[in-house]
Each structure stands twice: as structure tokens, then as C-alpha cells.
Write a structure and sequence with these properties.
single chain, about 60 residues, alpha+beta, two-stranded antiparallel ribbon, 2 helices, 2 strands
Length: about 60
């Protein structure tokens, strides 16, 4: 869903679990700000997702 449907480049995914709670991070590159906004909206509508946040990292 994420990379093919929304045409973003997923570079890393990390999922962990603690006390039955899953937490994950997805690193990706997008062409336009609207692309990430659309992705955040789609993921936030998935049943079971409690929170989602955007983190910018320009360390490269």
C-alpha cells in the first residue's frame, strides 16, 4: 500500500513490540509535501492505529 499506491520510496521499516503494543517507524522519501500528508491521512484511518507523526531528518 505505502510504496506502490502512493508512489513514495520506502528506505527502512522497523517494528517492535512491548507488552502487546506494536510500535513502528517507516523511513521514506517523497517528492512533494502533499504526498506525505496523503500518506499520514491514509495510515491514520487504518483501524488500530493510535497515533502517527511526521519527523523530518536532514542528516544525510
Amino acid at each position: 500500500m505505502i510504496s506502490s499506491e502512493l508512489k513514495v520510496n520506502m528506505t527502512n521499516i522497523n517494528i517492535s513490540v512491548k507488552d502487546g503494543i506494536f510500535e513502528g517507524t517507516i523511513d521514506l522519501y517523497v517528492h512533494h509535501t502533499q504526498d506525505i500528508n496523503n500518506l499520514i491521512l491514509k495510515i491514520s484511518n487504518v483501524r488500530g492505529i493510535e497515533s502517527i507523526k511526521r519527523v523530518e531528518d536532514f542528516s544525510e
